[in-house]
Design a protein that fits this description.
homotetramer; seven-stranded mixed sheet; 189 residues; alpha/beta; globular; Rossmann fold; 7 strands
Chain lengths: 189, 189, 189, 189
């Protein structure tokens, strides 16, 4: 049995939807226990990550980087950093914003710097951009935004209980979750 | 009179087309002299940049960063770096690749690190993503990719003498050129 | 008269000390009004930045990026972003952490992505590493850490009312402040 | 038996020395075959990487990023990228420059973007900065520069056949090599 925690912050449910699809993907792999954890819950009990095999980070991109809520979780992990208690865990990440690029890469770079400070091992998004040539960014294409460091989604603002993330972006999140679970299994068993 | 050089490398004419549109935009500003320079020409005569007011960098994004040809130009500028001869010049950048994100932001970050080592002043792309909400990444929308550090374009591969860059991406390049010329004028006169 | 605000967060007074030296440098330039503002004060009144000529960002690097407190300020500026009210202002930044590199560059990259989203103009740290060859990182050398994107400092933890930042790092902060004031003056008058 | 290739470019032997120490570290792990490959050799035969278990990248940082020679190798790998032939290989990196920070982090970020485009798995430098508090950046301290994304070294220019890399930087390179070999073994066997 391998254990994975998906820790995320979501302001308007877009990143939450993405997180749920990362979980759907990871759950497809046998003998995995996958939990969704909000940053609020994580900050209250940072020790819950000490014994998991993989941690997947999810945050909206606000003003060019992770949200302040997600950053609070990052800062709250400094004792785990000092004790090296996340060393050699598998890490990955996903992010959402309102436009195609929108400096989302800086959020993924920030996740990676964070994971490397924790001596974790980084797994990215392995699918090539699946958009048809005549229709770049097609809503139902896998990795339509063309991101390798982690999974990206682009959403417009709908009502709070809805998400506008495209079917392709959500499928991309699933594939990331599945990939992380498979690699964790190979590495940890 | 202010002088601007646009230094670019282009493998399949996409970045060249973008460079030409940056020039179209800069030429719209009165009393500017704007030259297009290929990396090949630039490397032969790196001193040609010593007396210009602004330098705009353009490169395709290959394998996650500037092309090797563009990097040769960067490395060839080390004497100018040592002599601080580009200090306080205005700098900006643009890049093209086959997908929406495609780690193009790392190319712009690399331009910025380079410009800062030369003690230049960085001007980005100031337009918000102009895509209609119901159609993110719309081909004719200004800054449809949603990049702030510089101008991004996404092109598919057509025949060598054609470019597939969208009308929005080319218009975005023009606006960047115009902005750089205006700011250079304000700063240098 | 040009106006500059230095907005900073400081956990253990190291970044505060750095901020004070940025102000010392900016104050050396005639006809400048320079204010220090904490993130706490800034968040309460984000409109205070609307009419200044330059904004200088300062944050410790915690877990590979800006502190959560500084990120709260960044997120609180989203209305100014939407209204483009910081457009064409001069921007610069500085950061401190416990080791030489310590991923401080990601903090500066995050400042730059933020400034570019606000359509600001970025000014970096223009001095070459002044360390003697036989003693790299010498405490009293200008830009001893060798950063171009902004000013870096390295501090160890002393008592709360003391700072361990080296004399070279504080002098580097001063030079950044002076450079920003000079460039702002040239650009805004 | 696991196989590791260390692919590097070195202008003045500093990065070469670092590469040799990465190999020393990897060789300490049983049942590993570790080869040093220059970028020149690699470009002539890019297929040599298809069957190895791990690839470690090494480049000097020139003008804020990898050297043009190293970038040529990166660009030459585009067919391997298209065929996904490096997928799931372990990746890591190291870089050298003349100052402590010197934007070396952008070189490591560029390695990571490259590795992620190839769907590789990234392993960083896991040791905390071992400098004594009273002497940050001490030449014989492990990870004295404080880098987590990969191994950094700082060297001054001596005669071509000598290297000035500190004993701590070379030991840091060894530890990276050993870590990559151990993780590759765990993952690939």
């Amino acid at each position: 049995m391998i254990t994975i925690k998906i820790i995320y912050h979501s302001g308007y449910n877009h990143t939450k939807k993405q997180a749920e699809h990362v979980k759907i993907g990871a759950d497809k792999v046998d003998n995995t226990k996958v939990d969704l954890v909000t940053t609020e819950e994580a900050i209250k009990d940072i020790d819950q990550f000490a014994n998991v095999d993989a941690i997947i980070f999810g945050s909206p991109t606000y003003m060019g980087s992770v949200s302040a809520d997600f950053k609070q979780f990052m800062d709250a992990s400094s004792s785990a950093w000092f004790n090296r208690s996340w060393k050699d865990k598998i890490a990955a990440g996903f992010t959402n914003s309102g436009s195609m690029s929108g400096e989302k890469m800086n959020t993924l770079n920030t996740f990676i710097a964070f994971a490397m400070q924790h001596a974790m091992i980084w797994v990215g998004q392995a699918e090539l951009d699946g958009s048809p040539k005549e229709e770049p960014g097609k809503p139902d294409a896998i990795n339509r935004i063309g991101s390798a460091l982690g999974a990206m989604a682009q959403s417009i603002q709908l009502s709070p209980d809805q998400t506008s993330a495209s079917s392709g972006d959500l499928k991309t999140a699933e594939i990331l979750g599945q990939r992380v679970a498979n690699i964790t299994k190979k590495f940890k068993s």
